[in-house]
Amino acid sequence: MPQLDRIIVFSQIFWLFIIFTLFYTILTHFFLPKFIKAIKIRKQIIDANSVEISLMAENISRKQTLLKKVLLKDLESIKILLTQHFTYLVKEKGYLNTTIIDEKLSFVILNTLTYCNLQLLNSVIVYPKILSSKI
Question: What InterPro entries does the record tag this protein with (predicted)?
């Protein structure tokens, strides 16, 4: 059988070894550094993006807390003004005409529902309107 001949086997093993060594040397010398460089650059980009994202998240959370404080302060001042105005309407004029206040409150609630989150809405205390005009 010619495939089991000893003369043919040694030449095939020799050329296999030479070609494998040459192929391995070319891959490790030329292509492997390029792959490693690309992987390192991608890792640096990912690290830079994660640092930037964390800074942006901190900045956004800081702005959200500041906005929440300002909104709560303004809502408290609106509550005080509405209480004073409501008291003035009831005591001075003797009747309960709150249509203007209701319109403004509905506009504020609509904007709050549209542009604010649920946590801010939970911090606003809303009392039900008295249906009867008797005081």
Answer: YMF19-like_N (IPR003319)
Q: Note the pTM of the prediction, 2 decimals.
A: 0.46
Residues 6+ apart with CB under 8 A from 79: 125
Segments in 89-135 forming alpha helices (H): 99-115, 118-123
Q: What gap in Å lies between CA 103 and CA 99, rounded to an integer? A: 6
| pLDDT tens profile 43-67 | 999 999 999 999 999 988 898 888 8
CA 127 to chain centre: 33
Cα(45)–Cα(7) distance, integer angstroms: 56
Which of 78, 73, 121 is CA-nearest to residue 101?
78
107 touches 134 (CB < 8 A) = no
CA nearest neighbour of 95 among 53, 41, 48, 132: 132
